[in-house]
Protein: Phospholipase
Organism: Paenibacillus silvae
Amino acid sequence: MSSSYIHEVKLPPHYDKNKQYPVIFALHGMGSDERDMLQLMEPLSSNFIIIAIRGPLVQGGGYAYFHIKSIGNPIRELYDASVQGLQHLILELSAQYAIDPARRYIVGFSQGAIMAMTLSLIMGDAIKGIVAMSGYIPQFVKDEYTLQPSPNLSALISHGDQDHLFPLHLGEDNAAFFRSHTDHVTYMPYRGGHTVTPELYVKLQHFLRTDAQVTAEDTKGMNE
């Protein structure tokens, strides 16, 4: 594999390479690592392939996908490089494992949410859905990237009303922006800060399981 991104893969029990499975690409927040996201996605590991990806840059005791000039202002060249690298990795891994191309999901927190939203906006039908927790969409992505999200994209966007890093209006802006591209947006503001609350944890699991099941049924119906 040509990608230099460190990642961990958890396959469902009784994995069969001749079947097709939905996949979650899990992206961590700044200063964290892939193990945190792998643990967060554990309840879904019976039905999904889970791939947790480490950011390529050292950040404190953990890692990052990009560094920033200030809050909300990523260093553009580092940001662009991670977007390109993650795109390539998603496609490489999709060819390596028994992944259903119609059920590829990205789940991200903070920096991971920022990456998840960006990737879903530029990768078209390659991404079926995202869970974006406590992030924002950089202005240069909206203005300068070629945006081609799938009209069938499903998005769960969540944000805490006491987030000390990114104020609540950014979550509202994220939801509004995605609603201009797809009719399948769920926005979940919640009581809390820059964290994953128990309520959100339950919601994201239900969202992913339901969307993956509905998509599988729709795909089967079209093929019959």
Notes: The radius of gyration is 16 Å.
